[in-house]
Structures are given as structure tokens and as C-alpha cells.
Amino acid sequence: MNELLLGLADDELVIGWRDSEWTGIAPMLEEDVAFSSIAQNEIGHARAVYELLAEDADALAFDRPLDAYRCAPLVELRLLDWAHAIARRWLYEVADEIRIAALMEDDDARVAGLAAKINREEAYHRMHAEMWRERLADTPQFRAAVEDLWPYAAGMLPAKQREALAARAHRSLPSDKLLLGKERGGHTEQLAELWDEMTMVRHSAPAGAQW
Amino acid sequence: MAAVEVPTDEQGLLEYVQGGGQVEATDRLPDDYRAKLVKFIEMHGNSELMGVLPEREWILRAPTLQRKLALTAKIQDEVGHAQLIYRVVEDLGKPREQCLADLIAGKSKFHNVFHYPTKTWGDVGVIAWLVDAAAIISQKALLKCSYAPYARIMKKICWEESFHILHGRDVILALVTGTPEQFELVQEALDRWWGPLMQFHGNPIPAADDPMFHWRIKSQGNEEARQQFLEGYVPQILELGLTIPDPKLRRGDDGVWGYTEPDWAELKSVVTGHGPCTAERLEFRRRFLEQEQWVRDAFLAA
Amino acid sequence: MSVVWEVFRQDRKGQPFEHAGSIVAPDADFAEAWAREQYGRRGESVALWLVPREQIHTVGDWADEFDLKYRRVDGYSIKARLKEARERAAARAG
């Protein structure tokens, strides 16, 4: 299975799940609505990539064992304060843009085509993240959040893409020590909690049950 | 022909709206009318907002990607509706921050159904199908509200709600044609929700005694709404093989539905803040409202 | 934060822009982002106009004291004369 694509799909699934945690509790109603749109787009992207990889997108999304997921620790973190949520949105979009650009050059036309579609939809996410970053840039809360999450953002991309990310985020590459436990390939405890809740209804009926 | 002149005296305005006339935010509104509008419309906004809380955790637990997307969109609509509704209240003179503060302090109300727990995926279907159906009956009647800005947003709200009921019914249909355990999920949820559903439209006071009817804020009586709900949805429920937990529920030969008298004391207790989940949900809202105050302040400062 | 933006939306190309509601936002970027959500997330609008409420010049009263009906359709009642003209034409023909 294409590890890169699975990583993309699992990232989108999990960050979509995390972004949905703001339903009803965003700082203003307008952002509740905006985050819901972003989350729907992300789940939609995950689904489209899963469909490229397998017959049954739901089976791929819900029915794998925990260690078969390929999401990066960045998206697994439960971040229920706005500064961190927005910092992650912004860092994720910057990193994702680099990843998607590479996929748009893929030899497989279906992959390149899907990446192009995703890229077009992401334009709104980038605009939204940049708008918020500008507004919160001078606040201590946001600066601290970016500081916290920057190593996780670097850990989301393969080593060869991290220079580009550092340039766009105007930061220097984190040390190996700082990256420990934050790179793709391992999982946080928070993914296990998320996965339990995500699969509890589905797993309450036998495999193949309709919903 | 000359434009309709909205009367500026209270009695004239009353006759005007009782005759079907509508007013705008810029017309001179008597204090009593304005106060009643704010109270009624604010309660609607509160309800849309509080309605999110019983449902939000099921987005996270939705058993397929399609259901996750549909439920996210449905709940998104509800927040969007709250946004539209509070905007109308704001133009009537009460800022959103004040509405939210009053809600959390327990000074204003929201509909009974949003004070109850959701326990299973069966609840998700029952709420999207039947609670939204009960709500849309009232909402369609509000299309005729004498206060035009509110009537106009009701048009958008009704249009968006139309998919909610279909989504809810689709969830229910998947369950009742699934495993026996899945069928039981629906029946069990219906057994719990029937009482609050019957109370939803309020006790059957005659229109003449309903303060909201006086100024034609509401144009439909509570009992009329409930009868419409029963007429439309009881057959749809029964045809799935589900049972309704009211042995007295039956349609009379005159087309009027008879039923066990709902527990009006329970309704009153719940909407005055004593529902099973009222305190915990208001506390949840309060916690995040306070936590993110700095964000709203950053907006004002910039 | 308190700029009220009135939102006008266009259903399809060629249709007029109609008033859809209002949004409170601190600047044009947020007004756009939030208006897109509220009035376009289902693809129900092809375009939006956003205007700060204070920029809108409202016109609401009219003086029509002398009832100049001749310039409107309701100023004409042709039924009676048309009936007579038809009757006379029929008589001439017959």
C-alpha cells in the first residue's frame, strides 16, 4: 500500500476528527461554522484517498488495528485551546501544501489528479489559517503554541521536505532531540483514545453491518 | 398606489400586524412588542445553540464517513442558524454577548428537548428525524411572523432543515433494516424521546391567551402544531414496525389525535433549568466561553 | 469588532443580487470568509456583495400627493370602452 497516500488520508481523517471537536465551542459562532466546513473537507479528502487505495473506504478508515494507521503525531494531539488549534491549522496547512505539491507531480495520473483537486479546496483552508495567524501573531498565547507545535509540524514531513517547511514557517529546523516522539512512524497515547471513541459505534455491530 | 404606511401608534400597529402586516427593524416598535420579540427570538437562538451539545459527540463516533459528514453538516447548520437568529436579536437591541451571558446564567430559556441526554446512535436518528420534524412545523408557521427580519431568516432556516429530516430518517431506516440489536436501538431511543417530543410544542393554551400570538410573532397555536406533528409522523413511525409508548395515542374519526396528557410539570421544570443535562451543558458552554475570551478581545484590540 | 456588513447574494449568473442578511466582522477578510460560509457553503450563491451597513444610503419615504395615475397601469380602465368599440364594430359588420 502506498505509504505516502495512506499517511495523507490518515492525517486528514484524524485532523478532521480533531477539528470537529470545536463543534459548539469555538470562540465565535462564525468560526464554529468555518471549522465544520474545514473538517468536512478533510474527511472528504480522506475518503477520496481511501477510495483510491481500496474498495471500501469505511473499512480502511475504521477497521484497521491501531498500529496500522500512518498519521503523524501532530494531528493526534488533543488541542482544546484556540491558540494551539489555530497554530496547528496553520502549521498543518503549510506542511500539507508541500506534500500535496509533490503528489501533484506523481507519475500515477489518478494520484496527481486527486492531489490537484485537494489542492484547489485547500486554498480556502490556507486563506483561513493565514487570516487567523495574522490576527493572533502578536499574542503570547499564539507564539507559545507555535513554539510547542513546530517540532510536530517538522515531524509530519519526510526529512527531505523539512527545509522547505522551515523556510515557509520562518523557523529553524528542530534538533533530533526535540523531534523525538513527534515524527511520523510512531503514535501518541492520544491516538488510542481518539480511535476508541471513533470506532465505538461501528464496533458495536458485527463487521459488515449497515449504518 | 401609495406605499403601505406602518402605523406609529401602538393600537394602530397592533391592528396592522393582526391583519397580516409585517414590520422592519427600522419601524417604530412599541416596547411590549419589542420585548416579546427579543424573548421569543432569543429563546430560538439559544435552542439552536444548545441543540448542538447533545449531538456533537456523535460526530466523533459516527460509524461511517458518510454519516460523519452528514451529521457534521447538520450540526453546522444549527450553529449557522444560531448566528442568523442572534443577529436579528442584536438589531432589536440586545447584543449577542448579552444573550450568551444570560443563557449561561440561566436567565433565558431554551427548548425542552435539548436538556436531555443522548445515549446511543439510535438517539442520533430519532433527534434528526423527529425532533427536527417537530421543530420544522413551528418554523414553517414562523414564516408568517409579523417581524419581517425574523420571517426572512426562517425561510433560509427551513430550506436548510429539509435535509436534516431526510438524513435522520435515513439513519433510522438503516437501523430498522439492520440487525435486531440495531432495531432495538431505535425502539429504545423512541421510548425515551416520546415524552419530550409530546411536550415540545408547549401546553395547549388557546391562541387568544398566548402572548406571542397577540402581536402575531407566532401565528400557530401549540396544539395545532402538535396535531400536525402527530398527523404527519405517527404513521411514518408505525409503518416501520416501531411502537409508540402511549397506549392512548389514536386518531379520532374527526381527524383529531388523542393521547395521554403530557407531563406539563416536567416541561416547566425542564425549561426553567432543571433538566437532566441542563447544568452540565451550560457549564460546558461557560467553560469554553471564558477560556476563549482572550480571542474575542484580540479581535477588538486589533 | 463591530462592523455590520450587509450581504447580497446572487443565485445564478444573470440574476439580480438580493439582500440575504448581515454579518458582524472586524474587516473585509473575515467578512468574506464568514459570508462564504453562511451564504455559500452549499453552493447556493454564485456571488456575494458585502457592504458595511453605514455605507448604505436608505431611501424610504415618498410623496404622491396628486395621484399621477396616468403613468401606471392601474391608471387605465379600458373595459367599458373596449366593450362598446367591439359592439359598434360588430354592428357595422353585421
Average predicted confidence as pLDDT of chain C? 92
The CA-CA distance between the termini of chain C, in Å, is 81 Å
Rg of chain C, alpha carbons = 25 Å
Number of strands of chain C: 3
Largest sheet of chain C: 3 strands, antiparallel
SSE order of chain C, one letter for each helix or strand: EEHEH
Strand order of the largest sheet of chain C: 2-1-3
Helix/strand class of chain A: mainly alpha
Strand residue percentage of chain C: 15-25%
Helix content of chain A: 55-70%
End-to-end Cα distance of chain A: 27 Å
Task: Describe it.
- Chain A has helices at 3-20, 29-53, 57-62, 73-76, 82-103, 109-136, 140-156, 162-169, 176-179, 189-199.
- Chain A is mainly α and 211 residues long.
- In chain A, helix 2 packs antiparallel against helix 6 (109-136) and helix 5 packs antiparallel against helix 6 (109-136).
- The longest helix of chain A has 28 residues, at 109-136.
- Chain B is globular and about 60 Å long.
- Chain B is mostly helical and 302 residues long.
- Helix content of chain B is 67%, strand content 1%.
- Chain B has helices spanning 10-18, 31-61, 65-91, 96-104, 121-141, 148-176, 180-200, 211-214, 222-238, 264-274, 278-291, 293-301, and strands spanning 250-251, 257-258.
- The N and C termini of chain B lie far apart (50 Å).
- Chain C is of the alpha+beta class and 94 residues long.
- In chain C, 30% of the residues lie in helices and 24% in strands.
- In chain C, strands 2-1-3 form a 3-stranded antiparallel β-sheet, with helices on one face.
- Classes of the chains: A mainly alpha (211), B mainly alpha (302), C alpha+beta (94).
- Chains in contact: A-B, A-C, B-C.
- The interface between A and B is large, with 43 and 46 residues.
